[in-house]
Structure formats: structure tokens, C-alpha cells
Design brief:
mainly alpha; 6 helices
């Protein structure tokens, strides 16, 4: 009896995940008016990753610095004439484009690898994994 209940539960759970429109997520999010080009978004995502990584290397509790990180990201985006809304809308849109999003993620990873290769040897391996505790307790 328990086996049948588990099987039925599993079938209903999987069936509830199916979309009636055949899984067409692209239809859910229309192309935003302020859509960033793929290249510009990849560049911005790369730099945002660097900003977030810099904070994660320097601070143990990132949640305490969420506002500061957000402001630094907005400052960077402003230097590229990108609004936070355009950045977020573009990410939401491109995530519905599965193949495009995968390629963009690969491009970001490649750019980050290139940035690491361009670092001086001592900087690339200095203090990796070392936790730095700053601030008041």
C-alpha cells in the first residue's frame, strides 16, 4: 500500500511540473524595451562577478555587506550607462533563452579565467582560501 502511495505521489509530482504549453518559457517573458546586448551583458556579468568575489574574499558574512555590494554594482553599471533595472530585466529575459544563456555563462567563465591569467603570479595565488575577519563584533 505504501509503495502505491509513493508511486502515485511521484507521478502526480512530476505531472505537476509539466507545462501545458509544451515547456515554452520564452513566451512568459517578453523582450524588454531596455534589453542589453549579449556582449554588454556578458561584460557586465563578468565585472559583477569580480565585485562579488572581492567582497567574498574579504568578508565572512556577505549578508552584512549586501547593501554595499549592491551600491558598488550600481556604480559599476552606471559607468557603462546601464541601469539596474535594464541589467535585471536582461538577465530575466536571457535566462528564458536556454541555449543563449548557456553560451553567455560560458563567455563569462572564459572572461573570468582570462582575468585570473592576467593577474601577477603572486596575486593569483596570494591568500586564496584565507578568511579575513574585519569589522566590529
Amino acid at each position: 500500500m505504501i509503495k502505491w502511495l509513493l508511486i502515485c505521489f511521484s507521478v502526480f509530482t512530476l505531472a505537476s511540473c509539466l507545462r501545458l504549453d509544451g515547456g515554452n518559457v520564452e513566451a512568459d517573458i517578453p523582450k524588454p524595451d531596455n534589453l542589453l546586448s549579449k556582449g554588454l551583458l556578458v561584460e557586465a556579468m563578468t565585472e559583477v562577478s569580480v565585485i562579488e568575489a572581492a567582497y567574498s574574499m574579504r568578508h565572512v558574512q556577505l549578508i552584512r555587506y549586501a547593501d554595499v555590494i549592491s551600491k558598488d554594482i550600481e556604480k559599476y553599471l552606471a559607468t557603462k550607462n546601464i541601469t539596474k533595472e535594464a541589467y535585471e530585466a536582461s538577465i530575466r529575459y536571457y535566462t528564458t533563452q536556454s541555449n543563449t544563456w548557456t553560451e553567455m555563462q560560458k563567455d563569462v567563465a572564459k572572461k573570468l579565467e582570462d582575468k585570473i591569467k592576467d593577474l601577477p603570479e603572486e596575486a593569483a595565488h596570494d591568500k586564496v582560501g584565507e578568511v579575513v575577519v574585519e569589522g566590529e563584533f
